[in-house]
Design brief:
The protein has 21 helices and three strands. It is mainly α. The protein folds into two domains: 200 residues, Growth Hormone, Chain: A; 213 residues, Growth Hormone, Chain: A (Up-down Bundle), CATH 1.20.1250.20. Strand 1 and strand 2 form a beta hairpin. The two termini are 22 Å apart.
Length: 472
Amino acid sequence: MTSTTQAPRPGAGAAHPEHLGHVIFIAAAAAMGGFLFGYDSSVINGAVEAIRDRYDVGSAALAQVIAIALIGCAIGAATAGRIADRIGRIRCMQIAAVLFTISAVGSALPFALWDLAFWRVIGGFAIGMASVIGPAYIAEVAPPAYRGRLGSFQQAAIVVGIAVSQLVNWGILNAADGDQRGKLVGLEAWQVMLGVMVVPAVLYGLLSFAIPESPRFLVSVGRRERAREILAEVEGKDIDFDARIAEIEHAMHTEEKSSFRDLLGGGFFFKKIVWIGIGLSVFQQFVGINVAFYYSSTLWQSVGIDPSASFLYSFTTSIINIIGTVIAMIFVDRIGRKPLALIGSVGMVIGLALEAWAFSAHLVDGKLPATQGWVALVAAHLFVLFFALSWGVVVWVFLGEMFPNRIRAAALGVAASAQWIANWAITASFPSLADWNLSGTYVIYTVFAALSIPFVLRYVKETKGKALEEMG
């Protein structure tokens, strides 16, 4: 599933003011999938310790339950494009909304650990679908003049979803008097945390009935008149509809369908540019960013911070994530992708190294000494800030721009798959590594952040200001 990305033509593509509000609503509704992406992937943060206690499992088994959703993510992302090309973008969103809802209900009412893991996989599949269908749909519906800004709705929705999940978890914990297994509405608090996702999931499904199908899909299935109606809704009635539809058809016919075979070559199986894309994806995850979103409550409680405060710190970290993302969106086109990545890497090294130092202290009465405790908190927020203002956004920009047209789709798929696998590796290994040596775990993440600097300097080329056709 791909989208047209031609530059706007004179007199076309810039929606009139009266249409712009409608277009923003359409993009925001589609971006609800991104909100659920962020919400569902991080809401488990509030339930980790309760699940450990409820089912009396060790760190290794617990990690698999947390990380198994990423298997569903990979499958959902790999299949969403074909599903959307077959039945349409809107139907794909509705399927994702149903899966999010089923996952929320099932996760809130598990009768065994394997049962909970199964519902996590279902939710992961929905996350994978949302990660693909939202950006593609927005790109296909948005007028060219507003495509970049409307496309940023997806990333913004993801980080807002992460923050809201942590705020909701904190509120539920306080309602349960600080006990993750305290009773609320006949359920334990952690079950309510996972079940609340029903609300945004249902809203996502309802909104999908209020937005139009992609004109590109409609043209692909021969519904040209309906495509004209949608184009009039989003781009105004002053455009040449026949020319616009002909342009869409031409783009669809001339797009090259890259395959896995096209990526092969060179001395190490893949072409060098594909390995660079894989490297960017792996470094983005191996700095341990998702530990901050999947395990932060557990992390803070392990060094003596009470559950209510640990949940609050998870929320404040999410706010920092939003701020950093906004900074990246402002500067990625101004100072360039490569400088921003390097700035982020240096900042992450500092933050992670300080965390490693703080966690090396011996606990006093089950808590970090005051100095190390404050350093750990500040450093954790610093790390997330520098990640969000750089690698969190820049890697996706790089992956969308760095590959030659001939292999872009296939190469992006391989790089994205590498990212899910790396995410799984970090998520599945953290509890056992933390049991082994928490400070040592952060030393490992620090090393990967440091190694990302020479990697970017030597292998990554700046893509700012270059046409996609220039990538070779």
